[in-house]
Design a protein that fits this description.
The protein has 209 residues and is of the alpha+beta class. The protein has seven helices and four strands. It has two domains: 75 residues, Glutaredoxin, CATH 3.40.30.10; 122 residues, Glutathione S-transferase Yfyf (Class Pi), Chain A, domain 2, CATH 1.20.1050. It has a four-stranded mixed beta sheet with strand order 2-1-3-4, covered by helices on one side. The radius of gyration is 17 Å and the shape is globular. It binds glutathione. The site of glutathione has 13 residues, from helix 1.
Length: 209
Amino acid sequence: MKLYDYKQAPNPRRVRIFMAEKGIEIETVQINLMKLEQHSDAYRKINPLGEVPALVLDDGSCISQTNAICRYLEDIFPQTPLYGRTPLERAEVESQNHLIQMNGIIAGGEAFRNSSPNFKNRAISGPHAYPQIPELAERGLKRIDNLFADLDKHFADQQFLVGDYFSVADITAFCTMGFIRWVKKTIPSECGHLQRWFDQVASRPSSKA
Ligand SMILES: N[C@@H](CCC(=O)N[C@@H](CS)C(=O)NCC(=O)O)C(=O)O
């Protein structure tokens, strides 16, 4: 297996932290997004979407989409389950991971990609050109403020996103906190519960992956 990765980008980081938690080592290949290598003919042959991460299996199949890659890895490396251990826990992890994907990763992407001069006509990742909409950048910033407040409330009485169980949803949220620094958003000083959760996740060795 080979993981197509870019060290600086948030979505591949989610997969790297996931693998580190499980103790999985896979060969990685860096695709330099700043140099637009994701749109080279060679990479488009591997992943026609022109995105990272992508996981290529030994039989040549390519899995795109961060969540699909992590789910596949969970199935073939079930040790240290990160998608839940019971039907209810799996549903809770799915729910939290989806919420963080929508209100964190997507909201941060709205704010960043609709404002950065480097993303003119690339406001959505993938093979199609989309112009920037400045109002979406504004809305993305507001959504991030709401995310801070919602998560702070959540962590007031829960250790992780799903009770005391560390899951893929915490990894998505942790990578979101790193990503939104790109739009100069950091955890507000009044969000002490969120900061406590963040410091706890940051102290795990996997956070360096
Ligand atoms: N929906 C995809 C999104 C992946 C994605 O947005 N990847 C970014 C890096 S974090 C990318 O490849 N961007 C390429 C580009 O902007 O051209 C997933 O969940 O994996």
